[in-house]
Amino acid sequence: MIGWWRRLDGSGRTATGAVVMVCCMFSLGWAAIPLYDWFCRVTGFGGTTQVGSGPSDVILDRTITVRFDANVDRALGWEFEPVERTMTLRIGETGLAYYEVFNPSDQPLAGTASYNVTPYAAGVHFIKIACFCFELQVLQPGERMLMPVSFHVDPSLVDDPEASHIHTITLSYTFHPSDLPASAQTAAVTN
Description:
By secondary structure, this protein is of the alpha+beta class. It has 3 helices and 10 strands; from the N terminus they run ααββββββββββα. The chain has helices at residues 2-7, 10-43, 182-190; strands spanning 50-51, 63-72, 79-82, 86-90, 95-102, 109-118, 126-131, 137-139, 144-153, 168-178. A 5-stranded mixed β-sheet has the order 1-7-9-5-3, with no helix packed on it. A 5-stranded mixed β-sheet has the order 4-2-10-6-8, with no helix packed on it. It is flat, with a radius of gyration of 23 Å. The model is unreliable at 43-47 (pLDDT under 50).
């Protein structure tokens, strides 16, 4: 295999090396988004929350306050806000919060919610059991909807040296516009 490399002159080696480098850079660029997403989900980096399948088995006496924040990308134009601004729970206790969203436009719109928690050290301990943010949301013209999020703060928070001092966590969502699914476009034309 090395024989073909030796047969190349200086400019051929340079060109081949450049092509290999470009291919490697393209591959790394293509893989960066899924690898970064995986890294954030595993470590809670940047306030990325975790996904759980059910409630915590342990509930502590220590309480924590969860604040709720709502934002909308201007391009979407929805009205979006938490029903309750804060909730105090015991660590490990399951909380259920609602956000209200309204589409004031005259056309159906689709949106996807991105989310994080602050302080970032709490991300690995904030467990979502069910959330509207896991799915694309489609609202018809003038439609208003209550959207739930079920969560708990994992008791491991009290043993984490970087997070044990945390008494308040802010859960923040931002809705971004998404492409309207074909089924929603068909329903809008039919109605």
